[in-house]
């Protein structure tokens, strides 16, 4: 009789939730078989519903994108993070939420130094950027790419090499979200500017679309220049995390100049594809020109705000006999110096 009851319970549980035999025996051995079965049914139902909802959402988004932008490039079909747009969009939303909530969370907390982690992180991105720059340059050379206009199917094996490297370039934009997170943890909130957030949040999304529709050809140029600039930039950030190295780092100002030069050159090269068109879609070229113009405006404003005003401030402080700011960093002993100057005038 007892065995018959257990058998009936197994039948009811399996018919309601399609549990595997092992899970059924686990619940039978517990003190509360019926509640265990209901709980598993709830979990399975919720999991199936969520999976169905996400699958339906992905299909809907993909259908709209395919109608709007046309057929995707089959060479990247099934590649990690490229099949559906939803993960990239969710990562971007989470990034913006952390940008908004992170400084609030850290407001009454001590900043983290993160010195060792920063050295490793920036060294890793320096090496990744160097690898991408090298592979893109050699791939362009092997494929005989044209500077003026290059379609997405005439480079042969070199096209696939470019596609593989540009996938890493897309993925690196996800890794670079950590730039902002480190600013938050170290309470360097003044570095989380509109330019910084706009650039990081948009690049990941733009390159998802690039990788699905134009993953090689004329897309190579901006990524190649940007990889080279990132070698300079992340090597600077990595070395600046070591205090003893800071006096020897002189090229920060030229990184911003290099970025502005990169945007101008990219606009010029993209415009060549418009003037002397090939089989590369013109819509992507127009979009890239517009995006580069937005970055030039924001970076130019950043450059003026950061360097020209800083230089004017230093000249003014020097004329007033104050050396409270040296190389853009506030001197922690400035108040002490001011007290000393009240007793003894500085002689230059």
TrEMBL record:
Membrane topology classification: Multi-pass membrane protein
Gene Ontology molecular functions: fatty acid elongase activity
Stretches for region Disordered: 1-31
EC assignment: 2.3.1.199
Transmembrane region(s): 78-100, 112-134, 167-185, 197-214, 220-239, 260-277, 283-304
Pathway assigned to this chain's UniProt record: Lipid metabolism; polyunsaturated fatty acid biosynthesis
Top-level taxon of the source organism: Eukaryota
GO BP term, example: linoleic acid metabolic process
Pfam families tied to this protein: ELO
UniProt feature, compositional bias: Polar residues: 14-31
GO cellular component: dendrite; endoplasmic reticulum membrane; neuronal cell body
Protein localization: Endoplasmic reticulum membrane; Cell projection, Dendrite; Membrane
UniProt KW keywords: Cell projection, Endoplasmic reticulum, Fatty acid biosynthesis, Fatty acid metabolism, Lipid biosynthesis, Lipid metabolism, Membrane, Transferase, Transmembrane, Transmembrane helix
Function noted in UniProt: Catalyzes the first and rate-limiting reaction of the four reactions that constitute the long-chain fatty acids elongation cycle. This endoplasmic reticulum-bound enzymatic process allows the addition of 2 carbons to the chain of long- and very long-chain fatty acids (VLCFAs) per cycle. Condensing enzyme that acts specifically toward polyunsaturated acyl-CoA with the higher activity toward C18:3(n-6) acyl-CoA.
HAMAP family (alphabetical): VLCF_elongase_5 (MF_03205)
Similarity annotation: Belongs to the ELO family. ELOVL5 subfamily.
Protein name: Elongation of very long chain fatty acids protein 5
Lineage of source species: Eukaryota, Metazoa, Chordata, Craniata, Vertebrata
Gene that specifies this protein: ELOVL5
